[in-house]
Amino acid sequence: MNLASIDLNLLVAFEALMEERHVTRAGQRIGLAQPSMSSALARLRALFADDLLVRTAEGMQPTARALALARPIGEALEQIRRTLDSGPGFDPRSARRHFTIAVTDYGDLVIVPALVEALRRDAPGVDLTVRPITDAVESLARLERGEVDALIGGHLPVSSRTTRQFLLMERFTCVRDASRAAPGISLDRADFVRLPHVLFSSTGGDGSPSAVDAILSEHGHKRRVAVTLPHVVAVPFVLAGTDLVATMAERIARRFADVAGVAILPLPYEVPAFAIDLVHGLRATSNPAMQWFVDLIVKTCRTI
After folding, report:
1. Which residues contact 157 (CB under 8 A, 6 or more apart)?
2. DSSP 8-state code for residue 57
3. 105-139 pLDDT per residue, tens
4. Taking Cα atoms as reference points, which of 42, 45, 43 lies closest to residue 7?
5. Nearest alpha-carbon partner for 211 in 200, 226, 203
6. How far is residue 39's CA from residue 48's CA, in Å, rounded to a whole number?
7. pLDDT digits over 149-187, tens only?
8. Which of 179, 267, 171 is nearest to 223 (CA)?
9. Under 8 Å CB-to-CB from 127, ≥6 apart: which residues?
10. Number of neighbours of residue 282 by Cβ within 10 angstroms
């Protein structure tokens, strides 16, 4: 095959088609209209003398030939990207750059403040846009489309085009009005079940069954959720001055304990801790600026 006679942009189109397995989405990913992407697929089929992608009841599926080509073509394109990206590197002190991340409420309250402080200290010319994760699947799709640079939160989905990086572990704690909490004395199980609860549910539902409800069910117990709130920041302020209790991530609870007038108590049940992760594209390591940003997030979380 004469390399000079091949339009290398077709290989970029092939990569997008293999990752999206949808002509329109693949075109959107690399900036081609649907007719142009269909034309690229036709040219690829002629180039490799194979259908490459065939329509089935489950959508477009790759042929054996396409699957065999996917890895070497992807590796070749990645090497080209690394070569083109290589240069003097990334100097955060003098760089003018903008990053966009999407975060859960936890990331917004716990990680973003520390991250912004680190950016102002180490990279004053770098700007940051923070968007909410209201739908994790849609946020992942936006990451894959390049609309955001990274996702931060717990229980985030990943795909073949992204990677998950551990940031920190978080545990749950019990929160109640400070005037009703005896110093050094936690709630027993009977009181925890008996008292009415405040629940945070970002989706607007009742949140059941949560990890807490599942554990209570294992012990034959059920709590009463008296108030459900859409924003976690409201939880300590709503229960302050009442008999309500809540289960919250410990680092969030500690941010509001004094200002809201609430006490933080150990949970009377063993509720598993959960991981907070960073999800970013597979190509982040080949981009010096993005690699620096990922490293900064990881390093910042070690101090939280």
Report:
1. 136, 137, 140, 279
2. T
3. 999 999 999 999 999 999 999 999 999 998 999 99
4. 43
5. 200
6. 14
7. 999 999 999 887 889 999 999 999 999 999 998 766 788
8. 267
9. 97, 98, 99
10. 13
